[in-house]
Amino acid sequence: MIQTLHPDQIAAITSGTISLGKTPVEIKRISIDSRQVIDPAHTLFVALVGAKIDGAKFIPQLIKEGLTCFLVSENYAGTNAEVTWIRVADTRQALQQVAAFQRSLFQKPLIGITGSNGKTIVKEWLGQILAEHYSVAKSPKSYNSQVGVPLSVFGMESYHQVAVMEVGISKAGEMKALEKILKPQLGIFTNIGAAHDEGFPSRKEKIREKLQLFQDSEFLIYCRDQLELTEEIQSWIPLEKQIAWSDRAGADFTRSLKVQDQGARIILMKADLSTFTFFTQFADRASLENITHAIVGALTLGMPADLIQQGLTHLKPIEMRLSLKAGINDCMLIDDTYSNDLEGLRIALDFMKLQRKKRRKILILSDLLQQGPSEHWAPEVLRLIQAHEIDLVIGVGRELTVIGEHLDDKAQFFETTDSLLNWLKPEFFHQDLILVTGARAFGFESVINLLQQRIHGTVLEINLNALTHNFNFFKKRLNPQTKVMVMVKAFAYGGGAVEIANHLQSMGVDYLAVAYTDEGVTLRQHGIQLPIMVLNPLEESFHFLRQFDLEPVVFSLDFFQKLNLWAAEQHALLKIHLDFDTGMHRLGFEEEDMKALREQIIASKNLELASIYTHLVGADEQIHEEFSREQLEKFQQMKDILLQGLDKKPLIHALNSGGIIRFPEFQWDMVRLGIGLYGVEVTGGFDAELQSVSTLKTTVSQVKTLMPGETVGYSRKGLMENGGKIATLPIGYADGFDRRFSNGKGYVLIQGKKAAVVGNVCMDMVMVDVSGMEVKAGDEAIVYGEEISLKALAENIGTIPYELLTNISSRVKRVYYLD
Ligand SMILES: *Cc1c(COP(=O)(O)O)cnc(C)c1O
Hints:
Substrate binds at residues 586, 763. This protein is α/β, with parallel strands linked by helices.
């Protein structure tokens, strides 16, 4: 923060009512996430109300952890005279007001970036270029929302010389609040596209809304070749404020591009015919657009061209996401080789905190190059390391060593990455959680390479943010008190049970369910603590149920007896769930079992009734509407009969993903969410609202040119009548690429274009038709993902998305991302 604030000041800024606690202190930090507090005595906690969590819920715990100042809604009922309370009408608005105040104290240039695509990249690249010359504050990752922008502002410090902030909105009316906070002197409007069109009456309206960000800006940079955008800018922004670049003559900067083998030359000519020439190793259209925005931004700020070129030379493609991957020797690696500032470090450490416990927490980091001299950032880095209880710090760079003396034997320092690599041996690490984060110039990719498990060609990427988004989509459709059980059976629908369960645990899910006992055992062995229901526990596994605190489903009188007898012999107490068969005819009690079941329950001292459920056979399909309702009715009757005169209150549940959408009135105490969480909306009504969670990717191994009449693959099935070009991909039916995709039934996307399967899918490989495309070995091919609908693919081969997802073999490496 630029300036510490006294609680009285905060109350004045937010027009809140304040009741001061015993010893009010200066506020140095603001937190909205109870897990991220590192200097509790000087932190103000702002209780935001989100779709899934009310921040106020964490206040009692935070008081225990030493926080003494809270900004809460005026409806908040809690009291405690020891601590300071600031009560306001709207906590989010108050957060924005405090941010606007901090912003007003920053007297140096602030650049605001908005647009449909590329804003995070332009922000990062411009930030990197400016860092050759200035100390730069920039918003972390894609913190660009109503809450993200204020948090970005709190990352600004008085020593920063320039701030680069991105701004994103998704619906009408949002920009005003963000403009009030940021008031950028210089603006960049990257471009306009279809993203979030649904939130605005028209494309024009969307542009106008975004333009509000620049209403008081001195200059706005844009590309004049984007006609829709240009038209609006020319009607709303005075000409003297516009800085336009274009590939055609007559703009403030006329650009000519010379694309070469190893990159591109960008020549910018000003109206006075003075020219600047820059070279970049990027040559694709989108990157060149982003780079041009960044160059024009830096020139407008007055940065010398040779320093801009120096910055361009160091630019590397930006891996936007923090990722979690399997490391060597049973370690987990968090790869954050992309960010290199305090905010980025904070985010990465918070992500680390949410991961499963491992033997040690290890941090490998470099000097923070973009943050100026070490006295600016080193004390904070040290505080973060201490607050996060890092067991071992491995530092690279000269400046970082100053923190060494405070860490004793818990730290090891190297001057260069090479000297670290000379020292680093894989056998130093075993079952550790390792965060690798460093400035581009340190080339930490080589550290990651050494520590990660080899990934061959094919990976399944899991987007944890999308998982959270989908969870919230379903949660919003339910009553707030309804519990959610998430089905993580079958390796969490292919996504990887342990990591997904861990993420769900941190999101506040109530229950998990697996199909078999061993799946539950694996989760427990990896530190998952949520209650776990086992759908089909087999008799051989009874002792594991007890040992690992797993809750079996009981589905027949016979099974009840067996389990009860076993539990009595073992003096064990087990929680059980009852499955009622109302039409599935798979497992489950029948209506005529109810009386006998009640007696067994009354007589049992070792089995405790946790819940009763049934399962719908066609919740996703309209044609089964009537049958579903019959099932739900029958379930209601059966459970009423059972519970009559029984002094128990088990949880009642019936709905799966489709059911939540179609029969919310039958949500009872809990729902069982499955496929919807993983991004497939089975009823088809809300496809656009769910985000795709998994992307299956592979890379081209070889490209071949075939003559007319030649055939491809086994049994000569793939006849290339007119010849053409094929690419071989390292994925086959043993990886889960279904053999039914053979002979044109399936396809992959290469460079955004469909490439159809040629011939039969082999066990470990498949060939696709890339005739007429510029494809080479090493190019990426998307097998499933955002751009390829799992539903359509499944339909093509007469199956359902469930099967495609769960078939992805465990030999395909999973990588988890946070946007
Ligand atoms: C798999 C399963 C679910 C989840 O179903 P989805 O259609 O994936 O939401 C719910 N309940 C039971 C008993 C299941 O077996």
